[in-house]
Amino acid sequence: MVLQQPELHPVDAHPRRTSGLVVHEWIERTGGAEKVLDAVADAFPDADIACLWNDAPGRYPGRNVIESSLGRGPLRGRKALALPLMPAVWRNLQREPRLAGSYDWAVISSHLFAHQATHASVPADRTFVYAHTPARYLWTPELDERGKSLAVRSVAPAFRMLDRARGSRLQNVAANSRFVRDRIRDTWGVDAHVVHPPVDVAGLTAVPDWSTRLTPEEAAVLEALPTAFLLGASRFVPYKRLDHVIDAGSAADLPVVIAGSGPEEAALRARAAEATVPVTFVIEPSDVLLRAIMQRALAYVFPPVEDFGIMPVEAMALGTPVVVNALGGASESVVDGLTGVAVHPRLDPAETAAAALRAAGMSTLDCVQRARAFDTAIFRRTMTDWVLLGQDPAPV
């Protein structure tokens, strides 16, 4: 079975120039939400960008990036402490001196409270929310460690009530997956379109062999890896379940490579010491090195329950089949049995091992073909047609 490659459309110049505002929670140096913001900013190059604070000031050169009052005070970057003030800031954007002008529309990238943002000049029907998720630590604390803290649990009921009331008024909402669309329906009572997030598939596939782009030091790291291995790559935090990748490697009798960094490194190394197979850690690999490692892997194993999961798509774009959790948005990108395998949420190591061995024999070409459906160009075109032409995104 060969999947038909979707047609890629360039972002055309739309007939009417409008004044727009792009809103994002806060801008960090790296992150999946920032990749979405990058694509939105590219789609609307003349729009101002508003955020609570901007920790990557050189990210959008020549653009008007406007920080809120929270970004100019002692609560800058202190998300937990600033939390109670965020809704009020978002609900009165026109009070910010540099946002006092008039806008025709607003596109909001939200994973906490930014979907509550309003500007007096923008009517509700010209406000477009791209929801990564309703706030996970308010609505699904079982999926986010931050929601288990005493401070969050004490204020969560009041914030959920406020969030539900304001979310229910939204008229134009896109979710990044069907999984999140269902969560939006349950939390805000709103029906959302599904627009999968952008992945730079064109850039990933432009280099047939990423090992040719490595520095000598990086090439030495790559060549020192086992000839056949399972790959786990993400931030080293508990919910990413990299411990399960190690256990699955032992069950499959295959070496494991763990790439990334984070606070769980010591715990993961302790788990690796108990494994029955070699486990190699590659700490903070460059993008180029990680791509080369992905291309060498038998399969990329991605166990967490994610809202979408960009990295499995990146792995497929590099020709590597994937194993994902059947619960969550990552399963929406995989064609089960063709470009990867979705495993039961209970995450049994033997089942994941069997899935990885099955996935390892799948077609590189089918993986790449499937990944093209998530290319950034498709996302940009969908967003500009939705916002500027009033064309609802096609059902997913």
The tally of domains stands at 2
Tell me the CATH superfamily of the largest domain.
Glycogen Phosphorylase B
Helix-strand pattern = EHEEHHEEHHEHEHHEHEHEHEHEEHHH
Instruction: Please name the CATH topology of the largest domain.
Output: Rossmann fold
Instruction: Please give the CATH architecture of the largest domain.
Output: 3-Layer(aba) Sandwich
User: Treating each run of at least 4 consecutive H or I residues as one helix, how many helices?
Assistant: 15
Q: Class of the largest domain, according to the CATH hierarchy?
A: Alpha Beta
Instruction: Give the strand content.
Output: 5-15%
Task: Compute the CA-based radius of gyration.
Answer: 21 Å
Please provide a written account of the structure:
The chain has 396 residues and is α/β, with parallel strands linked by helices. It is built from 15 helices and 13 strands. Strands 3-2-1-4-5-6-7 form a seven-stranded parallel β-sheet. Strands 10-9-8-11-12-13 form a six-stranded parallel β-sheet, with helices on both faces.
